[in-house]
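User: Structure please.
Assistant: Input sequence and predicted structure:
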Amino acid sequence: MTVPFEKYDGAGNDFVVVDADAAPVEDRAAFARAHCDRETGVTDGAGGRRGADGVLFLSLTDDGDPARVTMTLVQPDGSVAEMCGNGARCVAAWAAARSAGSTVAIDTPAGSRRAVVDDGSVAVEMGTPTFDPEAVPLAGDAPLIDATLDELAGTASAGLSVTAVNTGVPHAVIFVGDVDAVQIDAVAPPIRHADAFPEGANVTFAAPAADGFRQRTYERGVEGETRACGTGAVAVAAAARRLGRRPDAADGGWISVSPPGGDLGVAVPDDGPARLRGPAAKRFEGTLPAGGEP
């Protein structure tokens, strides 16, 4: 049995998109592990990048305006992510192509998120970032704000100041002078698996740029660096605001956060949800084996 799919890209985050109503997949975890693999996974057959950052299983429940779609993101390790900002933007582009309008309501495990599609750019509400230790979650009772973790002594992460924030998923944010100088595969894992984070954490590094920040993120569930991370971009902006590092925001409060895959806009207002905007586009389509074999 084969499963029709579309490949979408959101500022460097790439996803296999499956219409869950048209093509049910019995073992979603096996399907994601096989087809997201960067060595043997999905390919366009033209020498493009193999694999994906996850599989988006989608169900369009209302094709009106706003359209409503249920989103489940299964990551390359087979786990389910509560929220993914760039994934949600790809979901909105997918739903808008099948509906009557440009506004989309996306139902995720982290809650419902509203998105607006405008000429290839998609802006999505991301919820309100929280530093509350129970919500992150953290093992302790106090927020983790620009602080070192004693348990990291003796590791490649020793001495780094960490700020913990939940932007739909937990992030450990570290501000550095130069993100390119970070040996992310060595430095991030001790933080990602630290006892301070009982459910693990995404690890996001940020450095000041002319109009915002540059960003690199090691993603939980991917277990490696991704070319973009929307929840990480929001985490950078939220942590910068909390620490007084945020640059002057123009354009209605938007600042630029730039991962390796492209530029994203982030707004973290005093009241109301954070917002994330950037490009999202379909790259190609095809069919994949349903059983999980590559």
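The CA atoms of residues 69 and 293 lie 28 Å apart.
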